[in-house]
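Its record is retained below.
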Amino acid sequence: MTQADTFPPGQRVGWIEFIKIILFGEKFDPLAYARGMSDEYGSFTYSRFGNIEVYQVADPELTHEILVERTAEFHKGIMKSAFEPFAGNGLLTSEGDFWKRQRKLAQPAFHYRRIESYAEAMIAHTEQMLDKWRSGQTVLIDREMMKLTLAIVAKTLFNADVSGDADRVGVLLNHILDAANERLNAPIRLPDWMPTPRRISQRRTIAELDAIINRVISERRASGADEGDLLSMLLLAQDEDGERMNDKQLRDEAMTLFLAGHETTANALTWAWYLLAQHPDVLAKMQAELDSVLGGRVPTLADLPNLPYNEMVIKETMRLFPPAPGLSRSPYQDLELGGHRVPKNALMQISIYAMHRSSRYFEQPDAFIPERFSAENEKHIPRYAYLPFGGGPRVCIGNQFAIMEARLILALVGSRFELALVPGQQVVPQQMLTLRPRESFAMRVTARQPQTQPQLELA
């Protein structure tokens, strides 16, 4: 038997243990499991849960091979089946030539010159949030960040103000994300046609959100106006044959952007405040930079090149808590990868979380050290070892939008307030489609005044 006929190193979980995981799923931590497999068995591993086989990749070279060199040999697999009932055939779930067409049509909407125009909306909505904060007040920081990024994506996507309906829209989006998470993580999935009470509720949720999105699309088509938002760009986009997206395609892309465009950034910011509260030295460096550059005024897009430590904090946060902790792929046919045979349609998990926290690629992998992303130090990070937005042709189309949004919010909030974790809380990360806190957690906000002092060296 050759190595190509063998499984990668790993472990098998017997049926009894597997049934325990199904019955007592809260005792199974997929993040700890992924990290443990990578640390104990290496960067390409195999697990068997009952009759479910999982191939885990936490290796930059193999990840590059899958996402770039051999991308046409893989499909989205379980991720597609989890998200498609809600996002339809949008960029997150579509495949092949249809995906290529949609990506090409949508790309101009995310050109840097276009998304620059959204900076003012990001700042304006952040100021509206901060105007409601009072020094000494306690806030549920994850919920505050969710409401903020939801308002921003509604404004930049639809040029719509959802402040009056933000709570309801947020509830609807969370219901859909929870349903997608359930489909993704369920060890046993009931047939889609089975009308369970939960699925009936999910269909009502989708119908309610669809009504909102379709109404906006219909009104915009009727007016023919370019509102300067992403929807206008999607409506105007046309391919080489002069064809444009139909209403179904627009709905699917809009739903995808709605679902993916607010929670990922909100989670990154939530984890940033959590980490900064526990690392006063990092917080002090960030505040010194903000005070030196801004002097208490509102940040603008033009300030970001002068705030390098701000960017380092965001990048290091997304290393420790990547917005999407993993990517799924499955081969169309049997193939060889890393010296081992991987069968057709096998479940492959690229564990970004395990790779980001591996000592093979990062010194002190569990430490919060923004300086590792300085211009000089970042050069030494292995290519494809750091993938907060995925990689290859299917890299997140909104990555520049998300980074700009996170940096502006971090700068404005960080210059005006200091956030401290309320004692006695246990903050536990939970792997879903995104990496979110298992429970909401409270932080106390304290107003601060900028200090005038020389900018620190940020080596």
